[in-house]
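Exercise (ungraded).
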Amino acid sequence: MKYLIKWSKEGDMRYISHLDIMRLFQRAFKRTGIRLKYTEGYSPHPKMSIAQPLSLGYTSRGEYFEFETQEDLDPEAIRQRMEDAMPEGIRMLSCTVLKETKKAAGALITRGDYDVGVRLAKPEEYEKLREAADWFLSQPSVIIQKVQKKSGKIKEIDIREKVRALEIDSQDDYLLMKLKVDTGSASNLNPEVLLQILRERMGISGGEMETRIERAEMYAESAEGAEIPLYLLK
Amino acid sequence: MFEYQSELEQKIARSVMRVEKPARYIGGELHAVRKPYDRVSMRVAFGFPDLYEIGMSNLGLQILYKVLNDIPDVQCERVYAPDVDFEAIMREEEIPLYTLETKRAVKEADIFAITVGYEMLVTNVLNMIDLAGMEMYAKDRGEEDPFIIIGGPCTYNPEPIAEFADAFSIGEGEEVWPEIMEKLREWKASGAPKIEFLKALCEIEGMYVPRFYEFDYNGDGTIREIRKLYDKAPDHIEKRIIRDMDSAPFPTSPVVPFISTVHDRAVVEIFRGCTRGCRFCQAGMIYRPVRERSPEKIREIVEEQLKATGYEELSILSLSTGDYSRVEELVTDLMRLCRESDVSMSLPSLRLDSFSFKVMDEIQGYKKSGLTFAVEAGSQRLRNVINKDITEEHIYSASRQAFELGWHSIKLYFMAGLPGETDEDLAGIADIARNIMNIYKEVNGKIGRLSIHVSVSNFVPKPHTPFQWFPQDTDEEFSRKHELVKNLIKPMKCVRLSYHDSATSYLEGVLARGDRRMCKTLVEAVRLGCKFDGWREHFDYEKWMQAFRNTGVDPDFYARRAWGYDEILPWDLIGTGVDKEFYLSENEKARRGEITKDCREGCQLCGVNRVFDC
């Protein structure tokens, strides 16, 4: 049976890399005794994957992990057993059954929500940040240049169209930016890229802006073309 | 989003993203112990003076972590040496050395325990004390500072670091640590000055409080006398050991790291000690007598550990697996267990007989890794001198069998600079490699996939061994010997040679037999920037030599001198249970090329059974 677990990465767990999280899940399955299906071939590995790897240093309350088990089990029982096998800061929020299609659920992801907390050195800079955000939203396009990993060629990318929504809330001693951005293999934006553009507009360096980034949710398009959170995927 | 438990935690959070592998510095691993503050009355910061990945692989620390945290009101917390990138930030941002469990400064703990397993870690020990914001010399530390207690195999000669420790724990720590904590509890309740706790430690067997002893020296630099400064301090500090391995505490829920470490797997120790009596081997002497854990207990530990950790690999640990008395039964049973739970198994140091070939064939399948022989010396004559019980006939017949079963890779360990060694012995290293090559040709018709790796390490005379009086080779001599072997091996394309760095071996030799006069040299070395000396990329020989010059200490006096039998040795205060006379007679037998039998074949009267049961 194929399952999708929604999980969260809290506190210091943000310093654990994607690769190490993979090993953590693998060992957690071993601790629970839930047997995963393995791939065929020369060096078989368990059928499991983490959707859209999260950048090191980010927390998340909307991570997804899909896997196939040898036996059919009750999804809530899996969730509970995995939750018990995890260290503090990694929580299993829900577990659902997926149709055993070829395509991975993670490959269907198109958008993601992020909460970005921003603390600035000087109070007047918060106004500047709001201005920079307004400026960004008013632009028809904001082009950055990116060096392609494989070819080494420079490619121009429009960041503006990847930002679907940007709202700013005042908190006690910081600003909270709520972002909806393209997330997935077709089009993707790391919130840090947007922050860099805003800092450039404000004329401040990375050291003058303390940020906390948390992924809140990831979405896919349903068969009917609606944007749905991944856990509602059937 | 920006909430922190403390200012220190905030500083750490702001810093760790700027360094390589932040996960080294945050803790929170599975089975890490964190007790509620109000339930804790004594805190021990347990330090390992190397990187997280090395320290997390150390079984000793995992055992003592369990032993201490099993005491309800004791919180034991881990601390490893930060890598140079994080250290620079810590110093700049004024982040003191802190523990992973509570992210509180080491300086706030009651005891800062440090385990030292290798001579080249001593600068890291001092650097960690400094990073913790404490004075390096014990005499300069105040009433508010934690006690620094050092243990581990390196403390069988504690003198080069004696002035930095408040106390040393000599030998195995499982039983002694609860006793130390009881003394600490009493002392804390008494409100007495720190010196009273150190006096109380003298009542515990195996505890050495260096400030209660003073060394006097002769004009030629040798030791004239060791004087006690506190009359109730013991005359002789005998090591502590665990007598019964089955009832000894062993971690079944060890801390499981997030990042991959050197030994990232389940591990069970099957026995301690070794009966073979190789004369160069310190481990073979200091861990006497042999004490085995029963196969039933081992199985129980393995089952619990695999269940609690989810590890995909199991390794068994001892000085030589093949010497375990019920090895076939044990290995067969563990293999079955591993197969049932999809766990792979690694079996180090098996004796190469038909049983082990069957075992290795099964656990390695088509992915056959190399076979390893610790030959140690290139001729039977020299192997007799060092009492290494392995013959060329055995190596060749085992190799032939391995090649017939489809092995293609052999690793051979040797040493250079052994007592009584000649160039013929070194040439013998190449001969053995050549003979193995020819056997492969006979079996397979051609050299084909054969790979022979010859590893030559430099012999370092160690305290508490029959060769403790022996002058070490100079680094020029080591280099000449490496060249000699290299030239003889060069024509054989299938043989790869590697050897240890001579300067590192020299310094290891100096530190191994150092005395208290060397403490100031270590402080100077740290001041000059020496750290991570066991790491090739950090080791700076010139800085070390400068430290010796600046402090007026002659390193050759320790490493390259033939020590006298009648000398007082810096480590004479420390007892392993083995008599000094036994080392002496073994050294004499070595000179005559006589062997001493494995003590399973009859007691060789080393003396350990007068103190401990064999």
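Further reading is listed at the end of the chapter. For now, observe: Chain A touches chain B through 32 residues (CB under 8 Å). The radius of gyration of chain A is 20 Å.
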